[in-house]
């Protein structure tokens, strides 16, 4: 961890007469190891957190697709598929929640930029083989930074909403496999998860 974040803080606290803490700059060296390799962009040269300056980046169309799975178990799966959950239509409410989640990503993730989304899609599919809900989300924007976090936030918030709406029937529900599946645009271009 020291190679990423620098030396751990001293265990002794320095104080002045008015009991204020003194912060010392660390001698952090960026984890960039070669010209082609990228380090952690949210960490500055001295180890401090920073919001990335995207002003020099090129504007491009950016799209990201993410997914997750909510394992319900047979009893809850049957309730959801028959639309018999007391709180209402689980899949419709979760879809709307996922879309709202994508729109609020920068409020939830401290160093994310507030971006203008041009499109958000959230699809929820019941899987009777493992009694789950499979969730796929897509976010798109034309701008200077990617939409991966918005796509992942969309699917996770949709998954949390499924859990919230079904928790009265079972506490055994699991949200699993939240992951980025595909992204396009920006300097790094196209990327897909290998299956």
Automatic annotation (TrEMBL):
GO terms for biological process: Mo-molybdopterin cofactor biosynthetic process. It is an enzyme of class 4 (lyase). It comes from the Eukaryota. Residues 51-186 form the Molybdopterin cofactor biosynthesis C (MoaC) domain. GO terms for molecular function: cyclic pyranopterin monophosphate synthase activity. Pathway: Cofactor biosynthesis; molybdopterin biosynthesis. CDD domains: MoaC_PE (cd01420). Keywords: Lyase, Molybdenum cofactor biosynthesis. PANTHER family: MOLYBDOPTERIN COFACTOR SYNTHESIS PROTEIN A. This is cyclic pyranopterin monophosphate synthase.
